[in-house]
Amino acid sequence: MSIEIRNIQKRFGDFVALDNVNLTVQSGELLALLGPSGCGKTTLLRIIAGLETPDSGQVLFGGEDTTHTHVSEREVGFVFQHYALFRHMTVFDNVAFGLTVKPRSIRPSKEEIRDKVLKLLKLVQLDWLADAYPTQLSGGQRQRIALARSLAVEPKVLLLDEPFGALDAKVRKDLRRWLRDLHDEIHVTSVFVTHDQEEALEVSDRVVVMDHGHIEQVGAPDDIYEHPASPFVTQFLGDVNLFHGRIDGSHLTIGDYAHRLTTVPGEGRAVAYVRPHDLIVSRSPEDALASGTVEHIHAVGPVVRLEVATGDGQTLEAVLAKETYRELGIALGEAVHLKPKKVSVFLSEGGD
Ligand code: ATP
């Protein structure tokens, strides 16, 4: 079931929570809504769910206008950050709940419910916990049961609002992979809200980056990461070093450094963004974008993170493989030169 969001506008008093949002979720895809706190992700999800009414605009499910369809008739499943499973019911009964409360005329038989619940519990790999109570489960297990429960009624659309937000980092990481695998198996159209870049990039087919009530960019994770469409997206997706310069013709110049651009965003003052792992650390000043003194060395795991203080008071961050770091024999206080492997360039606000 595809979802189409057309010209959605939503205010809370004078505050514009969503400003003319347009978006299509393809049938069967897993789409992440990513953005900082307050950007409007949850509001958009609630409008898709029918828990919130837009001031103007439309929501279409499979081409049909559902803007004013009641939440109970939209056939959506939810998983929230704190999903309240019924504490007095077993895992089995929690998952079965949506089926047992159906009107008698369309309620499946006891055997059908049993088969379905066991199938779902197998799908979320927790069939061995069928007789347990929610208080006996870990946070991660609870969220998997919550998901099984929301899938029991075969929703056309699955909506997840920070479903792993309350879990610790390790469990979160495991569940991300698990959700990706699960989605590959069931292909229900899903919209997933998160403020965690890594989570959005790892889990989803496409990512929607939002800021201040509007969409900044929509694309496949790789596309968004490699070709961010704006300074906001570039900075939101991860650590980045900033360099101020100019674009003249097809050349970017930053101090003495010149770089030929393959894609030219225009002419005038510009900001170049380079990710720490896209800075090559060298002993030679040739073609250097910046030079400085090594101020900090963090050597944790397979990479080494260097902080390099430049003459003009800037601190740059470079990440290099441990092996390269050893080969270069870099020590604190030494001079190094930095060359970019890849830059994202945008014209400065206000142009010239
Ligand atoms: P978070 O990750 O913090 O939940 P979000 O991107 O999901 O952020 P929303 O919950 O959609 O953001 O909220 C967007 C803005 O709208 C926020 O500034 C919020 O305070 C405001 N807002 C949301 N719901 C209401 C409401 N019912 N009444 C007034 N303001 C609201």
Layout of secondary structure:
Blueprint lengths: L2 E10 L2 E11 L4 E5 L6 H9 L6 E6 L2 E2 L10 E4 L11 H10 L9 H14 L15 H13 L5 E5 L7 H18 L2 E6 L2 H7 L2 E6 L2 E6 L1 H6 L4 H6 L4 E8 L2 E4 L2 E4 L7 E7 L4 E4 L7 E11 L2 E8 L4 E7 H7 L6 E6 L3 E4 L5
Parallel strand pairs: 3-8, 3-9, 6-7, 7-8
Antiparallel strand pairs: 1-2, 1-4, 4-5, 9-10, 11-12, 11-14, 12-13, 14-20, 15-19, 16-17, 16-19, 17-18
This protein binds adenosine-5'-triphosphate.
Pfam family, one: ABC_tran
Organism: Crenobacter cavernae
Protein name: Sulfate ABC transporter ATP-binding protein
Question: What would you note in describing this structure?
Answer:
The protein folds into two domains: 3-235, Rossmann fold, CATH 3.40.50; 239-347, Beta Barrel (OB fold (Dihydrolipoamide Acetyltransferase, E2P)). Helix content is 26%, strand content 35%. It contains nine helices and 20 strands. A six-stranded mixed β-sheet has the order 6-7-8-3-9-10, with helices on both faces. The protein has a five-stranded antiparallel β-sheet with strand order 13-12-11-14-20. A five-stranded antiparallel β-sheet has the order 15-19-16-17-18. Helix 2 (91-100) crosses helix 3 and helix 3 packs across helix 4 (139-151). It binds adenosine-5'-triphosphate (ATP). Residues 12, 17, 35, 37-43, 195 line the site of adenosine-5'-triphosphate. Pfam families: ABC_tran, CysA_C_terminal, TOBE_3.
